[in-house]
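Observation: inputs received (chain + oxa(dethia)-CoA).
Thought: call the complex predictor directly.
Action: predict_structure
Action Input:
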Amino acid sequence: MSATSAGRTDRTAVLCGLGGWLPRRRVGNDELAARLDTDDVWIRTRTGIRSRHLAAPHEATSDLAVAAGRRALANSGTPEADAVVVATTTPDRSCPATAPLVAARLGLSGAAAFDIGAVCTGFVYALTAGAGLVTSGVADRVLVIGADVYSRIVDPDDRQNAVVFGDGAGAVVLRAGHADEAGALGSFDLGSDGDQEDMITVAAGGSRLPADPALTSHAERHFAMRGKKVFRHALSRMTESARTVLDRAGLTVDDVDRFVPHQANLRILRTVAAGLGLPADRCATHVETAGNTGAASIPLALAHDHANRALRPGGRVLLTAFGGGLTWGSCLLTWPDLPPAAEPAHQEEESAP
Ligand code: UT7
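Observation:
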């Protein structure tokens, strides 16, 4: 392990920039209720979601990732990074990875660049990988992005999933620093259970079952989730992972200033927070106006909290996620003193009635 300054060996990844991006088009519950067998009350009661943003037909994951990445780099004070990690379930193409293209479009050609696939836990996995690049000395500055365009894989006529998922991207910049600095990333916990792979899946489109319309059904070519079972797994895995990472750090929930969970469903967030013994007002919620944005949800919730001054510099932040795989993970950090975002996360545009 290399040191960042003479005599110190506690080289640590420190968060020093944050940015988010939501596509312009906002889709309210009533717009979905006008064409699907659903209604605003069901959606709000079961998920907490009032609206979500959907990408335009020409917008791909890399477009959202570049917008969020540019904001995070600007917020960090310098446009440089020597590694770019993109967590996504909806890469621009199945080959190559999306990260090299994102790096090039951000003026970071030459940087190490790779994708991480851990579905909705992707950002926590990518953050852990990015921190590892920093602590090992492989990179001095890492841009970590979570970006997803779920509207490309969710069947728009599937009422269960079309109401839940939204599109978006969020990003953070990590730099080399020390464990006692505000922004330092601390303990991590990652896990998976591949025996439950069919809980959240797009069956066709990979090497097991190519997405040939002659050989696959419409359902196999779209995102499928066993909602109720996933809900139960999410509650137990997120709670266990949050406890594990706190134990590893020798901390308790009383030490947590802000809990920023994956924004799957408001009921999940509230139940996990309550199960951990955290008051509801310490739990970040952004799902109401963004929906479930997959790998983007945690950095977007951080950007939303930062804009609303809900994150206190020096305060301890607990990130916990759960997703397809199944996968789960948590990370602890102290919050840095970041400048306010120079640009808004999106230019809001009302959906047509
Ligand atoms: O991000 C990765 C991890 N993802 C999650 O953690 C998501 C976890 N799951 C969920 O958030 C919830 O399970 C959903 C929001 C997806 C579904 O909510 P639920 O309360 O679990 O509903 P359900 O699946 O038990 O369905 C209850 C009823 C069913 O009707 P019957 O069988 O009782 O007649 C569904 O067909 O609600 C029906 N339903 C709907 N009704 C109106 C399902 N979707 C809708 C809808 N509008 N959009």
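Thought: report the result.
Final Answer: The domain at 11-178 is CATH 3.40.47.10 (Peroxisomal Thiolase; Chain A, domain 1). Residues 349-353 have pLDDT under 50 and may be disordered.
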